[in-house]
Design brief:
The protein is mainly α. The chain has five helices and no strands. It has helices spanning 3-39, 50-67, 70-92, 98-111, 125-140. Helix 1 (3-39) packs antiparallel against helix 3 (70-92), helix 1 (3-39) packs parallel to helix 4 (98-111) and helix 4 (98-111) packs antiparallel against helix 5 (125-140). 21% of the residues are buried.
């Protein structure tokens, strides 16, 4: 299989992820708010004691059960399990032109999505350089970077739908 064919497979599976992830993240945000409301401990907090950590984990399990979040998490895991071997294959194949490099840039961006969660100038120097490199490779190949449509992503201006990748 060619690198471009792997890129096509990547675009399909990544499109599924980009479509489903906002639903999952919204459910997780509601879950975190409910846990904080119930026990007063915010999500991703540094716990002050084993008891506090245990209390949070117990409540997490109860709230996830009540809200039906487990099936959403399983769906995300299923999508990632299909995306991972595609990304690994893309990593292992040599690029022969800018279009191939753009496929590789897409794969890198998919595992470094945090690069688009901040304004470029708010990133550390090394992360800013990586983001700029990925965006420039795709730009030279005239390919939209398929990072999630975040506030700071190029995808906000040129969505996957306009690129003909989502139906």
């Amino acid at each position: 299989m060619t690198l471009r064919a792997m890129g096509d497979k990547f675009a399909v599976v990544y499109g599924e992820l980009a479509t489903f992830l906002p639903k999952y993240e919204a459910a997780c945000d509601k879950r975190d708010q409910e846990i904080a409301r119930r026990i007063g401990i915010p999500a991703h907090c540094n716990f002050r004691s084993e008891v506090e950590a245990s209390s949070y984990c117990d409540e997490l399990g109860r709230v996830e059960q009540e809200m039906g979040i487990a099936p959403l998490g399983e769906k995300i895991e299923e999508i990632y399990s299909r995306l991972d071997p595609i990304v690994r294959a893309i990593r292992d194949m040599p690029a022969s032109d800018f279009a191939d490099l753009a496929v590789k840039a897409q794969a890198v961006a998919s595992v470094m999505q945090s690069l688009w969660e901040s304004a470029p100038d708010d990133l550390d120097y090394d992360k800013h350089l990586i983001r700029d490199l990925l965006e420039n490779i795709c730009g030279l190949a005239n390919v939209d970077l398929l990072v999630r449509n975040t506030r700071w992503s190029p995808g906000r201006q040129r969505t996957m739908a306009s690129a003909g990748l989502l139906q």
